[in-house]
Amino acid sequence: MANTGYADPYKRRRRWGTVLGVVLTLGVVVGTTAWYKLFREVPQTIDGMEAYYRYGSIGTEQEEGIPYYVWIVLPRMFPEHLPGDGGYRSLGMAWEADQPTPVGFSKKTIGFPRVGINCAACHAATYRTAPEATPIIVATGPSQTFDPQAYLRFLSAAASDPGFTPGAVLEHIRDEVQLSWLDRLLYRFLIIPRTRDGLLEQAERFAWTESRPRWGPGRIDPFNPVKFHPDLLGLDPAADTTIGNSDIMPIWAMDRQEGYSLHWDGLNDSLTEVVLSGAVGDGARPKSLPVERLAELEAFIRHKEPPPYPFLDQLDKELAAQGEAVFRQNCATCHATDGARTGTVIPLQEIGTDHHRLEMWTTEAAERYNDYARDYPWDFNAFVKTDGYVAKPLDGIWLRAPYLHNGSVPTLEDMLEPAERRPETFYRGYDVYHPERMGFIHQGEEAQRLGFHYDTREPGNSNAGHEGPQFGTELSAEDKEALIEYLKTR
Ligand code: HEC
Ligand code: HEC
Questions:
Q1: What is the number of domains present in the chain?
Q2: Fewer C-beta neighbours within 10 Å, C or N terminus of the chain?
Q3: Domain span at 191
Q4: What is the number of the ligand 1 atom nearest to the C-alpha of 220?
Q5: What is the Cα gyration radius of the chain?
Q6: Is 240 within the bounds of a domain?
């Protein structure tokens, strides 16, 4: 048997076994390394809810996160695609010293460090009491400075730039961090090319915005991106010309809005659904949605109080008391916490403000969103189509300027004038507060230099409506003054 001329079949099988073993081991090593380098999720370490609100993940990094080191070098590589100096700050982001990201952006490692957007990108206000004062950041306040559309445009311009090559990006990353040999390889051949493709895909998905008026700082079209996303509601942007441009809302003291219709048009009355769909709209997907963390954020926004008016020491208390009577008489039905119509939808014919935002949300979109998360333990059921805009409580009203759902009226003083006497154009996005007019400074050199030219004649930007005897525009000058003094205390 020793010399049959045939190889020992067992030996042969053993040899293949060894090869298979090596391949499998290699496969496991490669697989594990790939998983570790690309998908391993490292929990963030953040102390306290306020900090979590500013920098915590809402699950957007997985699907729409940008590799942190690529993201951080883009403004240095392509300053010409930004609206001004100062990197991302020129887009109106608030960036605290010693933080790796601006307020509203989370840094989280999923394989490699990634940047995702969170609620505070839009729902955190900044204001200054004088041009030389440091900006004060108010978590849950409406951002008036962040320009999400300019951010999207910057990312797409950077990704389309011929200078966006793995080599060039890596060269800039070298100034930021020492990457290992393996990491450099992964960045060069996988992460950077994939980032570019992803950003170009995103630009394509937002192509419909090019044919509609600019959002400008402090505004987004909140639901058209969700309607048109093929993985979300899947509606056809070519068959839809609606303009949803909408002013960012504050999300403080949400407990006082229990049972109220939410969003400007009241398209949902469940805070839990609005919070979850907020995260979905920002790029979280059912599998990455951190439902428990979002429940904590919901608890946070329920109880967070708006900040007091910063010039309260100058308040004329007597005048404010007179103003409270004017408010009770004229506004309380719709705006007091106990008002009969507060938190309900006031029909468009009655309120008379711009119709575009209302038309953007359709019955079909509501039905599709209610169908979206069917197979998950959480679900959407409360999306509806309405016929008007919600009368909101006026908590922290001083910091909600510019006013109305499209941010078309710069000050409270102007709100109490009929539309033909409200400014036709003004600048928004400058965060120095006017001490008397209840609004941000919106004219003049600095407002012009740093702000966005808002033209009320553009579709979606009308400043009409909320006028007439019912809405206080015909009050006496004295009553108006008193009313404004009172509203400083809200
Ligand atoms: C890109 C900007 C942006 C981000 C990010 C964002 N929102 Fe909003 N949010 C808006 C805008 C704009 C509105 C008003 C939209 C409308 O109805 O037209 C709004 C409305 C809301 C409302 C309704 C408030 C009310 O009084 O009716 C809630 C609640 C809310 N957002 C919560 C969240 C939460 C929670 C997150 C994070 C999970 C989030 N949003 C992320 C822009 C944003
Ligand atoms: C019939 C109900 C109703 C009455 C009465 C009413 N309002 Fe309003 N108010 C609304 C509605 C609805 C909106 C939202 C309209 C929109 O954004 O298109 C609104 C918006 C506002 C806003 C802008 C809120 C923001 O966050 O931008 C202010 C300020 C305001 N009202 C003040 C007043 C004052 C002051 C009075 C009394 C003189 C008053 N309103 C009377 C229904 C009412």
A1: 1
A2: N
A3: 40-121+148-211
A4: 12
A5: 26
A6: no
